[in-house]
Amino acid sequence: MCGIAGIISPKWDRRAREDAVARMVNRQQPRGPDARGFHNQGPTTLGMCRLAIIDPAQGHQPMVSSDERFSLIFNGTIYNYQELQAELAARGWIFKTKSDTEVLLAAYALDGAACLGTLRGMYAFAIWDAQAQTLFAARDSFGIKPLYYAQLPDGGLAFASELNALLASGHVSREIDPLSVSEYLAWFSVPAPRTIYRGIANLPPGHWLKVNAEGRCQTAAWDQLPAPTGSALITTNYHDFVHGLRHQLDDTIRAHRVADVPVGAFLSGGLDSTAIVGLMVKSGATQLKTFSLIFNEAEFSEQTSARLAAAAFGTEHHEELITGARVATDLPRILASFDQPTGDGINTYYASQMARQGGVTVALSGLGGDELFGGYPSFRDLPRLHRLLPAWRRVPRKLRAALVNQLRARPSTRARKLADFLAHARDLHELASLQRRVLPETARLALLAPEARAQARRLGPNHPMLDDFTSELMGADPFQIISAWELRTYLANVLLRDSDVFSMTHSLELRVPFVDRKLLAWLWAQPTHFKYNARSPKKALADATADLVPSAIRARHKQGFTLPFSRWLRAELRPFLHETFNSASLAACPWLDPITTAQVWTDYQKQKDDRAWSRVWTLAVLINFANRRSTP
Questions:
Q1: CB-hemisphere CA count at 13 Å for 279?
Q2: What domains can you pick out in the chain, each with its CATH number?
Q3: How many CA atoms lie within 13 A of 306 on its CB side?
Q4: pLDDT (tens digit, 9 = 90+) per residue, 224-279?
């Protein structure tokens, strides 16, 4: 695991490139506290800082091929590197290390971009080809590891693992993009390829980037979701499906445990994390350390279940109490770790801090289980609503508009979300596109200043990837469509992005075994009625791990891993919010309407809809971020 950075520009002298790349690497120090390295060749300077996980003694970067043609910097882990190493050695590559970095270097040297299809892992990497005078960069299928880039004023290009690193180069604008603000207000984060900054792009998951010696670049998708039909591995009965699923789960756990440093696990007490820990122990993990957050607010704490699971598996279990007072004290440090605003992730900040302090360098997480096995209400609710849409569209337009306005006038968050569905969705894709909206469209537009509001209106209420996903998922069934939307939007742009930021803040490599290409490829093709039961969500996962997961946990109603923000905003975090929503803070946000924005906090203090906390927090993070960024 590393932080990578680089500049390609024929117009800069070597010293200028080195200085800028050194600043970018220094800014990413928590990502790689163990070592750092730099490499200059032609118009390119590459830099990295390393968190040593595999072959700590020899896997140094940048890594250069023996003929000096290829120079690689790499952030992530290739889980199948040992199998690939044997194959590449048979083809003539002479390995000098036992690292996954050299396996990636060899794979690209021998196969070019085609090697991406053979990689199983999480990664973002860049490789300079001195012969072709091109830089090639790529990101894993799910976007577990990040890569940001920006065109430089002279036509060159800079890239890094963090937005803050690009800013630290001193050659990239820190201007906040009003259009990105409008998207953030809708989706809890800024969807790729846009970022919060004008002129800085986020390479989307499953995409590559090519840059020539003059700094001109092109991007393209190298991977999409598996085809919805056609597989020789489709099971024909539920027994075989459960058996096959268990085989796939055992396989992904074995792959994700590969490391030359201590590996632990997050254990919330829910089905996903408990299954991960049980599978780790079953695969041979001994003296396993597990980590849980607990709260004084009993309805948010899963302490009992986590302790039950830890006792069943015999793990060395660690707990940490998180209170509103502690969050209020830590908030400046937490917010400073954001490289762009997000409405989520503080739980990962604390869990990662606890795991690193508890003696592990790698931790496995249950992220992705809900997206693969139908754990969210969207899997139940959206198909029902989709079946009603034809009848709804037959209602006279004026009556529809009146009913939608009545829903919008209600104080309930659920009612306002339903209003958005009924006003804007025409099919299942559009329903799925709107599912993860934080602010309903009317509320979002009201919060924006006139110019930003006009831009948002032109884009419309749907997710920016609607057309791409609709085309990519042609022929998919409703479960696959919803699963894909959850994987490619909420998981990729919020959960995985935040998990990377906050785990790396504490120099912890966080791995997500459910978010695995091989597992998804097998699961995607299986009959939906095996994968999902609306009356018993995630039954398939529970049945596949029934010999491991305690029955009390398998039978539990899904709780979700959330913090008690609805309580804390009105108590311990109240002073922070008062300061955030004052006129001086709002003055740093010219793309927001200050009166409407301040009213959101005023209204929240009066109303009793606890679900509205996410709107207040989303705005507060954005305003705080703008005030931090307004000072160079």
A1: 30
A2: 2-221 (3.60.20.10), 238-324+342-374+483-554 (3.40.50.620), 378-480 (no CATH), 565-629 (no CATH)
A3: 23
A4: 877 655 555 899 999 999 999 999 999 999 999 999 999 999 999 999 999 999 99
Between the CA of residue 536 and those of 280, 373, 541, 557, what are the distances in Å? 25, 11, 11, 9
Residues 149 and 129: their CA atoms lie apart, in Å, by 19
CA pair distance 550, 271, nearest whole angstrom: 9
| Rounded-to-integer distance, Cα 411 and Cα 404, Å | 13
- pLDDT beyond 70 at 558: no
How many CB atoms neighbour CB 526 within 10 A? 19
DSSP one-letter string for 109-170:
HHHGGGGGGG--EEEEEEEEETTTTEEEEEE-TT--S--EEEE-TTS-EEEESSHHHHHHTT
What's the pTM value of the predicted model, to 2 decimals?
0.95
Question: 405-416: per-residue pLDDT in tens?
Answer: 999 988 788 888
**Rounded distance between C-alpha atoms, residue 281 and residue 513, angstroms:** 14
Confirm if 244 and 518 have CB atoms less than 8 A apart. Answer: no
- Report which residue type is found at 291: F
User: Burial letters for 365-394: b for 16+ Cβ neighbours within 10 Å, e otherwise?
Assistant: bbbbbbbbbbbbebbebbbebbeebeeeee
C-alpha 562/C-alpha 345 separation (Å) is 9
What is the per-residue pLDDT for 188? 86
